[in-house]
Recover the amino acids of this structure.
């Protein structure tokens, strides 16, 4: 995949008071619209800003994408649904021209002592991180495995059977010029890629994300996040699938997306 010509410090939005003006790099693959991972990143940023307490982990973020968001200014309004000693539930709603184009709920849980005992979990191994990763490099996809089309860039040291799909993402582009991505915002943006990961077929991507949910047991470390496909089911133009999220040190959580059939996916040139 060709390297991007976008400067790594270029932000997705120009922040002007209470409104956010998307720049051209915020465009996704479904036309002149703000990419789902950018919408999710902004909503994730909003709920995290609201809960300014490091004792609480952002354990779950559910993002709904009810209407396409044009490359035009948006506003985000945040409120707390419930606050408590162990749990805080926050809602963020994104408006554009008086219409809701995205909304999210974030569940924050207070950290505590880890109970003893052994619990089953699936054994999933991510392909190795490519050794030629450039700091602050674009595009978003550092390396993909098993996707079966031209987006694929396999590693000779990682054989695959053409079924399971994996990707390593480099998430360094900030939302705003004066504020780097937080680990949670980075994970919120990565989780949107679940729909592409699980729904990519031998003929490309023919499903668009309607919503996605991110769950975390800890915050990711570093700029790279990996996704390993875990499940997929589709019928009658509706698809659902899940992935396991990793950073360079191991598993951090999971994601699930629900999608509907759509044609016309064409990633914008970088």
């Amino acid at each position: 995949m060709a390297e991007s010509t976008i400067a790594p410090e270029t932000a997705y939005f120009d922040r002007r008071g209470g409104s956010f003006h998307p720049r051209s790099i915020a465009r996704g693959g479904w036309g002149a619209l703000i990419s789902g991972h950018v919408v999710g990143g902004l909503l994730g940023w909003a709920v995290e800003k609201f809960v300014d307490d490091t004792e609480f982990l952002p354990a779950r973020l559910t993002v709904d994408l009810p209407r396409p968001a044009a490359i035009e200014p948006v506003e985000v309004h945040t409120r707390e649904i419930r606050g408590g000693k162990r749990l805080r539930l926050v809602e963020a709603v994104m408006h554009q021209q008086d219409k809701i184009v995205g909304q999210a709920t974030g569940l924050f849980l207070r950290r505590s002592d880890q109970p003893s005992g052994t619990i089953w979990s699936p054994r999933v191994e991510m392909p190795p991180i490519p050794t030629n990763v450039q700091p602050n490099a674009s595009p978003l996809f550092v390396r993909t495995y098993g996707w079966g089309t031209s987006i694929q860039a396999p590693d000779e040291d990682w054989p695959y059977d053409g079924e399971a799909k994996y990707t390593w993402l480099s998430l360094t582009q900030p939302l705003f010029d004066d504020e780097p991505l937080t680990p949670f915002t980075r994970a919120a943006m990565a989780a949107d890629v679940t729909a592409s990961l699980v729904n990519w077929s031998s003929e490309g991507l023919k499903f668009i994300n309607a919503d996605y949910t991110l769950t975390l047991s800890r915050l990711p470390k570093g700029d790279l996040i990996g996704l390993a496909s875990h499940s997929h089911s589709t019928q009658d133009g509706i698809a659902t699938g899940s992935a396991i999220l990793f950073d360079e040190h191991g598993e951090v959580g999971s994601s699930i997306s629900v999608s509907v059939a759509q044609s016309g996916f064409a990633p914008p040139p970088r």
